[in-house]
Amino acid sequence: MLVVFPAPLKMGERLALQFSYEGDVLSEAGGGLLYVGVRGTWYPNRGSETAHFDLEFRYPPGWTLVATGKQVAPAAMASDDPSMQVSRWISDRPISLAGFNLGKYFRSEAHAGKTLIATYAAAGVERTFPKGTEQSSLAPPPLRPSFGRSPETSVTVVSPPPSPARNAQTVADEGARAVEFFSKLYGPYPYSQLSLTQMPGDLSQGWPSLVFLSSFSFLTPEDKSHLHLSDLDTSLSSAVVAHEIAHQWWGDLVSWRSYRDQWLVEALANYSSLLLLESHDPARFTAIMQRFRDNLVARNKQEREIVQAGPVSLGVRLTNSEFPDGYEMISYGRGTWLLHMLRTMMRDTEPAAARSQPISQEPFFRALLNLRKQFEGRAMTTRDLLKALEVELPHSAWHNGQRSLDWFYEGWINGVSVPKFELEKVKYTQQSGRVLVTGVIVQKEADRYLITSVPIYTNAKEKPVLLGRIFADGAETTFQLTAPAGTRGVVMDPYQTVLSRRR
Q: pTM of the predicted model, to two decimals?
């Protein structure tokens, strides 16, 4: 919309513009749910610019409305129709997105410290939700033993339709755990409350203080079993709640400057949700990271690896006819790996005594907390992230004596390589109760100038011991490390902290 004023405006002059318009925003989805179609464009939207929002809604009785911001008493003006409900919501701080959800909801609550987490879920699901599977099974044995053998009979068991409201408290509790976990890493939750609302469809979104959660996110473990998901897919679907809550910090409080930086907020939200998983199930975290890695080197119909869609810095341009899922695969998959590489490199190059400190004290998360403080309410760039990390970069992670991550920016963020590493010409020389280890790191299937920080460990039957990290610069890099007495073997990256091909 273009607004032409009758006279030129003076610098600093403020005007109030009032718009009157109408249109269809909602569509009925069944199960007590409405689909809010044009969530981001039903109001005067200024793109990524932030503003304070004061929203007042009128809607029929029997329905529950939840919106961004904090609910307050409606304005003095009464509703034109006394049979209608009225609710008013005011944003806690300037936000770039304002929205609402409306349904026949049941409410559940949990708390993360003083923050209220309220879950809103309907008794049913949308009409298009997958139906419960039918399965054939043997009839259960009688309660008392019978004389003679009864023939085995088969019965058909139809799984009941899921009821999200039955699992709403579990989702609220999950949300509270996520808020508590992320608050320790990124600082206090930025809004007065958090609403987790059921939405028809398979898409979820995290807006300021309001999360739209797919009906799938409200399924119980039993409900999910009827969808025949693998254990790994079940874990991924369970991480959606934490992912969208992480957007409260990364995407809502701190936004992205241009499409080239959009990968940041998705990767940060994705990695954050996996960190919560790692805190109680490290093996599952590793399995998911392996899945992301394997997806990147999988081939499409044209026999091209998905990673060839382009670097994360291409943003939405990654999606095209040849790579229809390019943006999601690269921004979420490779982007998550890039953050993991940076975090583990910074952790491994800390003094040994500091490596056992709480996760919030790791240099990577100290940098993210400072980034949040510096850019809350503003947009950041990829360079801004790297500058924040450089401040906390341990000296042994400086490349060529420079406190700079330019090498990572050029080779990994603006590159597409998923290299393969090999150790060659390894020798062990006894020296005064220690062992001098020398050898060559071979970096294959990589851009010519790719630089990678590769961890080297002792290959012990017990827990491997980190000897140090080597910058693999180009096709071949010689290295020299000191190992404990008795060391007879070394191994690269046993904990899979570097995005690389399976060896």
A: 0.91
Instruction: Write down the H helix ranges in 156-299.
Output: 168-186, 221-225, 231-238, 240-246, 262-278, 282-297
What's the CATH code, domain 418-503? 2.60.40
Let me know: does 20 contact 186? Beta carbons within 8 Å: no
Query: What's the pLDDT band for 333 if we cut at 50, 70, 90?
Result: very high
Tell me how far the alpha carbon of residue 134 is from its chain's centroid.
34
Provide the 10 A C-beta neighbour count for residue 122.
26
Convert the pLDDT of each residue in 442-498 to its tens digit.
999 999 999 999 999 998 777 899 999 999 999 999 999 999 999 999 999 999 999
Average pLDDT over residues 369-381: 97
Using the CB atoms, write b or e for 224-251: b if 16+ within 10 Å.
bebbeeeeeebbbbbbbbbbbbbbbbbb
Dist CA 377 CA 210 (whole Å): 17
Architecture of the domain defined by 26-124+163-246:
2-Layer Sandwich (3.30)
Q: Where in the chain is the domain with CATH 2.60.40?
A: 418-503
DSSP letter string, 71-119: EEPPPSSPPSSTTSEEEEEE-SS-BS---EEEESEEEEEEEETTEEEEE
Architecture of domain 254-416: Orthogonal Bundle (1.10)
pLDDT tens string 242-267: 999 999 999 999 999 999 999 999 99
Whole-angstrom Cα Rg for the chain: 27
